[in-house]
Amino acid sequence: MYTQLEQRNSPRPPVNVGTLQKMKADGEKIASLTAYDASFGVLVDEAGVDFVLVGDSLGMVIQGHETTVPVTMEDMLYHTRAVARGVHRPFLVADMPFMSYATKEQALGNAVRLMQDGGAKMVKLESGPSQVGIVEFLAGHDIPVCAHIGLKPQSVHKVGGFRVQGRDHDAAERMKRDAIDLQSAGADVILLECIPAQLGGEITNELDVPVIGIGAGPHVDGQILVLYDILDITTGRKPRFTRNFMQGATGPLEAIRAFVDAVKDRSYPAAEHCF
Ligand code: KIV
Questions:
Q1: Beta-carbon contacts of residue 102 (< 8 Å; ≥ 6 apart)
Q2: Nearest 5°: phi and psi at 30?
């Protein structure tokens, strides 16, 4: 009955919230990637990725939209179900799309759908002071939550572009406060996007929960990138923090393994990937 307990002593036990906390405590970096379908789910699992996010970035890399704003709950459910069929060891996290968590009740209903129907083990929401109560409500119903701060792509039209966040002192202090408040509200993981490396390190040191960064420098507990960026599938201008792991690899599995190795041995991110 308790399959989780049976698998605990297997050579590749499934990653859970406790595993992520232990990795932070032990100083082992958490290797994280996005995935959008079962085939890549199998590959990221095989390559040793710890944390897999079905990101609403699928709106851009799969659906061809200019932003993540058009992504719907139905889209997220479809892709989360597909990835869930491919991954076994990694911790599977699903993004809550734009306006799917505007109220506490709506957030709870949609988080439950992503877990029960989609197979996600955690939901991620773009967060700030207005979402603290929502995170608390979800956590109070035992929904594991990843709170995403820094650059929040769903706010692109409000902010006026995809820009590095937290560069000035006041903005950096606000972000630290937000991270602490979200942790106190019950967030199990904080995700930092596109912020100065020093601020990434300061927030990570202040928090007890694991911090995963994308363009947040080397001092966070784990690194996440968009799968299509590391496999050089994305065309056009790439963000400074990405690295093409297909260079020198014979195929996607080898490239994903190279990413995992580089995160674990701390050779990624290098100075040129940081702000
Ligand atoms: O949607 C996504 O892929 C994300 C990552 C960029 C972290 O939120």
A1: none
A2: -90, 115
Query: Can you name the residues that pair with 150 across neighbouring β-strands?
Result: 193
Q: Tell me the pLDDT tens digit for each residue of 65-92.
A: 999 999 999 999 999 999 999 999 999 9
| Ligand 1, CB within 6 Å, residue ranges | 34, 53, 55-57, 95, 191, 193, 214, 224, 226
CATH code of 76's domain:
3.20.20.60
Tell me, yes or no, whether 207 lies in a domain.
yes
Q: State which ligand 1 atom lies nearest to the alpha carbon of 212.
A: 7
Domain range holding 212? Answer: 17-273
pLDDT tens profile 210-224: 999 999 999 999 999
74 is catalytic: no
Give the tokens for residue 181.
Answer: 């408040």
Check pLDDT > 60 for residue 175. yes
For residue 10, being part of any structural domain is answered with no
Whether the per-residue pLDDT at 9 is higher than 70: the answer is no
Q: Out of 28, 136, 173, 193, pick the active-site residue.
A: 193
CA–CA dist 14, 31 (Å, integer): 14
